[in-house]
Design brief:
35% of the residues lie in helices and 19% in strands. It is of the alpha/beta class and 233 residues long.
């Protein structure tokens, strides 16, 4: 049965189970993706009702994660213990893409079957808004390169949080332009006399939700580090 997620119909071999952990950083909650061969991508939090929902949705034979943040990773060990699933074994019809930037260990998964292709984007591309570049682990230069790589996939993007993206390549292009615009804003803030990451953040991310101001400052620190590599500071 095909599952409809927003305006996008998922392939019949993909099912979404959303974790009950909504919040400023997780949007509507972590998206746990199930493939009909028993592959689970991003089990999400260690929350018993969510783990049960995953197991109720289909067999669990292998577990993959897009990166090591707790809202994606914490459910791995308990789910493996409950099901006997292997961790990290990529099926032969799924391809792993190294996409560092949000974190150093970020990956995406490209799955293609029956003439349908999708990209599981983790937090590299969210269903709405922009991803944090999680300094010191995250890297702006690596993130821009990862977005260039994902620009080759004009197919649905299935993110770690938020709604399905109709076109992964279009989302990657928007995010790349957004990141470059933010870098220009950081340069302008420094020209206005901002000296510290907090001062830059106050100017560039003045309208950000106070609950995630800390994450905005992570991104500012990553932006400043990137500009230093370009000898622009």
């Amino acid at each position: 049965m095909t599952q409809q997620v927003g305006p996008v119909a998922l392939p019949g071999w993909v099912t979404l189970v959303k974790a009950p952990n909504p919040g400023p950083m997780t949007l509507d909650g972590t998206n746990t993706w199930l493939l009909d061969d028993g592959t689970v991508i991003d089990p999400g939090p260690d929350e018993p009702a969510h783990l049960k929902a995953i197991m109720d949705a289909g067999p669990v034979r292998r577990i993959l994660v897009t990166h090591g943040h707790p809202d994606h990773l914490d459910g791995v060990a308990p789910l493996a213990a409950l099901t006997g699933a292997v961790v990290g074994e990529v099926p032969d019809w799924v391809r792993e893409l190294k996409t560092p930037g949000h974190t150093a260990d970020s990956v995406c998964f490209v799955a293609e079957r029956d003439g349908q292709r999708v990209v599981f984007t983790g937090d590299t591309i969210l269903g709405r808004g922009s991803s944090v570049v999680a300094w010191p682990d995250g890297d702006v230069g690596a993130y821009l390169a990862s977005l260039d790589q994902l620009g080759a996939y004009p197919v649905p993007g299935l993110p770690g949080h938020g709604p399905v993206l109709p076109d992964c390549a279009a989302a990657a292009a928007w995010l790349r332009a957004h990141r470059l615009e933010r870098l220009d804003q950081v340069r302008a803030a420094i020209a206005r006399g901002a000296h510290t990451p907090a001062e830059v953040c106050e100017i560039v991310y003045a309208d950000v939700d106070p609950a995630i101001r800390f994450a905005a400052e992570w991104t500012v620190r990553a932006q400043l580090a990137y500009l230093e590599t370009l000898s622009e500071l």
